[in-house]
Each structure stands twice: as structure tokens, then as C-alpha cells.
Amino acid sequence: MGDIILPAPRAAWWTGLGIRRKAALLAALSISWPAHAWEFKEGDWSGGIRAVVTVGTAIRASPIDPSLVPAGDGAGLRLDHAAPGGVNSDDGNLNYRRGDPVSSVAKGLVEFEANNADGWGVFTRVKGWYDHTLAEGHVALGNLPNDYAGGPLSDRGFSQGAKFRGISLADAYVKGQFSAGGLPVSVKAGQQTVDWGPAFTIPGGLRDINPRDFAALSRPGLQPQEGAKPFLALSGKIDLSSAASLEIFYQLLSATSTQPGCGTFAATADYASPGCDRVMVSNALSSADGLATGRFLKRGSDGTAGDAGQFGIGGSYLVPDIGTRFSLHFTNVHARTGYVEADRTGRSGAIFLPGDPDGLNPAYRFQYPKNIRMLSGSFATSVPSMKLRIAGELDHKFNQPLAFNAPDLLQAAVSGTGVLARDFALVPLGGPFAGYERFHVTQGQFAASGDIGSVIGGTLTLGGEVGAKYVHDLPDPNFRRYGRSDIFGTGPNNGVCAAGADPKACTTKGFVTPFSWGYRLQASLSYRDILPEVTLKPSVAFAHDVNGTSYDGAFNQGRQILRLALDGTVKDSYLFNLTYQTTLAGPYDPRADRDVFLISTGVKL
Asked: What's the rounded mean pLDDT across residues 550-573?
């Protein structure tokens, strides 16, 4: 990993920066910057400011796989192509070749905290970023906001967190600690995250009541605080005894996850994020030709779930004899990610007319289903004598939305055929058809990690996690199906495929299955003072989705991902990271060819 070098022809992100921007980036890493946070104490108040500034780049490490390239865009870019579908899911893949930077970002994270001796305080966190590759770099295909003109991508219409440059307020809350009836109470009011239960790498559990900032998660130099997206809420915790506690939150404003903008390397659906407002109806045409000939569906105004009715309540109890804390929580929140809703054509004759001359073509939008209820039980314990940490969680969602397969939905909307045609025909002309159905879903996961001790001169830490998901009463995928990227085309219609159908498409493989499971493994070595005031931490992580495909993308049967990384700190203030991530297998993974190198460095202030 130490031999990774950015090739000179690919270093345009640096040479393209103006003098002022270069100076700012160099200053961010200069050894003349202070190596500690600014702190203050004034009377009963104390606090300080902490900051992290990083610069980094991500480079595509694998060639484009022809099996993931649709005919229309593939032919337009003179690429080999063999995908049975995917014109609506290929922009982020086809915009970059192996060796291209896919993100080159300078960013900062600043925190301010002030606490009063009486137990009250405030906390704020602000983040800012500028991604030169996305803002200025040339791409082959383009995206919907730039009308597939190639050249630099456009972030017109993107949500604030997905734009190529910006400043956003993350956390901002007032906090307090006091006594009520002789019991200790802690409260927060403002923009915050609710971190209940153990932390797992497999998503879908209690911690996922928080929206996520997936755009930030795709940027090099990621800090742990950047992945969560705080929301406006009131929360509190009361300690009923030394062992028992009760906690509650009530969300005040709706909040949704931030998706990467269409055309960026991290994006998969070209029509999903705000500002990306078309769905092409023909895989045989390039995206540019589809726009030029009017062969697309327009996006209407996205719906909102509203602000009211989102809350959670729970409690925990520590059993001292076994050193284990048990927790039970109930939550009711609206969907954090959108689900497609399609409007049936408004005309009784032709369902779809190129160019939509009378404005009556089918259309689409995203809706956020309300009131997803979840009951969650968890435990966490440790075995100090073995330096072992163990946690587990069992969740049941009573009405989890599952998205219909996108090609099935598009086929019913545009041609009135396919497995959803009968459902679509029951909708009045011009009326909406929800692109999802609700199911009971049960999920369980178990994790363990431990410090093994000294191995080849470093301190070895091992971790493992296994998880499983079960969708109750899922229909036969020959007649009704959910999930699977449109890259893999349209599946069988009532068990029968059209003549000449692509074998990759004409199968029930890749769709959501009733049961799915997988595991995650991680190992790291920590070398302190291998050089004066230098700490190095090489690590390896492996993910294997063993069987089944989950509704939320956590498991995709057969997918294997390997991640190698080297983290380092100098004087506990300067940091760097080298990472290589590769997908070893993934027969129905639309991101199977998006291997990446990440290089970043920064300073803690």
C-alpha cells in the first residue's frame, strides 16, 4: 500500500486549482498549525473548539465491466456492452475509467462545545467541503442536470449535502443534566442523532432510525462523525437506579438521508437524487438520445411524510452479576429513503407518447412512507479477563416498505404489460401507484471483538459480525418481486420469459429473498511509536453475503468485498489513510466493478 502513487496525467485536480486554493490546502497541512484544540474557561463556563481538516482523492481501480454496460450508452461511448438493462443506473459507472480520480476533496469538520458548571451546555458541529473532481473534472457521459453533455458534471437541484461544494450545519443542540425527584436526568434539544443500542456494521437495526449522509460517506478522508445526519428532536434519559434507565425522543421535523448525486461514482440510480428528474424508457438509446427524442418519464414533485408522529421510547437494565446490559426499544419513524411512486397515464388511448405533447404521459416521484414501527431488543457485555466485547440485537419491523423491481414498475407504467400490469390497470387514469408494499421483517445480528495481544510487534484486534434478515410472507418472484438493479433487465412474466431474453435477466435470481444472511470480519494491528511519535494501523476487512438478497441492500447473494487499509497518526495531530477496496464476487451487484483506491491526509486542530 505504501507504493500507491497518483500518476502524473491524473493529477489534474491539483494543477487545476487556483493559487489561493493551493495555498489554503497547503496551509491546512502545514506543520506550523497548532497541534491542539482551542480551549477556554471563564467563570462557570468551559469548553473549546476542535477541528479536522483533510484533503484526499479517490481513484477508480478497476476497468468497466461490459456485463454492467447497457446497449444504448455503451454504443454511444464505444464501450463493449452486454447488460440486459441499466440505462437508468449507469452514469456513475460510465463517467470514469480505471485510473481516473472520482473524487478529490478538501474538507473540514469544526466542533464547538461549551458547558456550564450547573450541568447545561451547547454543542455544534459544522462541515464544509470542496470536491474539485466533481465540480471541474471532465467526464465521458455526464448526468441529467447537465443534459448528458459530458464535461463537468452539474449539481443543479441536488440536496445541499450532495452538492460538490458547500457548508452545512450538522449537530446543534442544547443539553442539560439535572435531578428530578432525586433521579438523574439528561436532556437534549436541537439537531442531534439518537445513538441507541450497540453499533453494528450490518445496517437495518436500531441505529438506522437516524438518517444517513451517503454523499459524505463516499468522500475520501471520512471522519466517524460524518456518516450520520442529525435531525431536529427532543430527547432525554432518566436513570431510575444505578442499573436501570429510561430514554425517549420525539422528532420535530422530517429528515431524510442524503443520496449521492447522479453521475457521481457513488451513485447507482440515475433518477433518484433530487435534481435528477428523468427516467429513460429505452435501453437501446443512449441517455442523450433519450432526452433528445423525448423518450423519458418526467419527475413530479416529491412527497413528504410530514413532521408529526416520529418518536422512540426504551429502557435498559444492567445485570451486575454477569456484567451485561439488556435493552428494549420501540420506535415509530417515517422512511429515511424515498420509494418510487408512478402516475398512470392520463389518456385512454396511447399510454406513452414521445415528448409528452399533451402532458398526460406517465410520471414518477419519490414518496416517504409513514410510521415504520420497530421493536428492538439488544444486549452488550464484555469479558475483561479475555479483553472480549460481545453484542447482539434482534429487531422486528411491523410494516417495512419493500420497493418493487424498477423494470417491472416501468414496464407497467409505459406499456401496460408485465407482472404489475393488472395492479396498474386498477389505478384511475392519472392516478398514483405506490411503488412498494409493506411486510413484517425480522433481523438479528451478533458481533464480537477482542484484543488478542502482541503479534509481530503490534497489538492485534480481531472482530466479527454475523447477521440475518427475514421477510415474512414474501410472494413468489415469478409473479411479484422486489429489488434488483435495472442493469439486470426484466425478469420472467408469470414464470415465462420473452423469446430471446437475456439469461441474466430471465431468472428470479437477484431479487429480494425471504431469508438472507452474511458475515463481516476485521483484523487490525496497532504499532505505537514505530517511529518517534508515529502510530501505524494496518487493517483488513472482509464482507461475505452468503445466501439470499435483502430488501435494503445489506446482503446481495454471493457478494464478497475486501478492504485493505493503512491508517497513521503523527504526534497525535497529523493523520493519513491509504485504502484499497475491491469486490471479489457479486453476480447481481451493480457496483461489482467499482474498485477504488483512497488516499487522504489531514490535521487535527
From this structure: 96
Within its chain, how far is the Cα of 9 from the centroid?
31
- Minimal CA–CA distance to 259: which of 348, 179, 163, 355? 163
Instruction: Go through the chain and tell me how many residues it has.
Output: 605
The pLDDT score that the predictor gives to residue 18 is 46
- Number of folded domains in the chain? 1
Domain CATH number, residue 495: 2.40.160
- Per-residue CA distances from 56 to 400, 484, 567, 598 (Å): 38, 32, 13, 7
Could you tell me if residue 3 is inside a domain?
A: no
Considering the domain boundaries, does residue 500 fall inside one?
Answer: yes
Can you give the residue range of the structural domain that contains 535?
172-604
Please indicate, yes or no, if residue 304 is contained in any of the structural domains. yes
pLDDT digits (tens, 9 = 90+) for 436-445: 999 999 999 9
The CA-based angle 482-486-488, given to 5 degrees, is 100
Alpha-helical segments (H) within 137-226: 214-217
Tell me how far apart the alpha carbons of residues 334 and 132 are, in angstroms, rounded to a whole number. 35
Q: List all residues 6 or more positions away from 41 whose beta carbon is below 8 Å from its beta carbon.
A: none
- Tally: H helices and E strands in the chain: 9, 24
- Write down the pTM of the prediction: 0.91
| Per-residue pLDDT tens digits for 313-356 | 999 999 999 999 999 999 999 999 999 999 999 999 999 999 99
**To which H or E segment does residue 316 belong?**
strand 311-319
Three-class DSSP category at 255: coil
How do strand 165-180 and strand 120-131 relate by DSSP bridges?
antiparallel
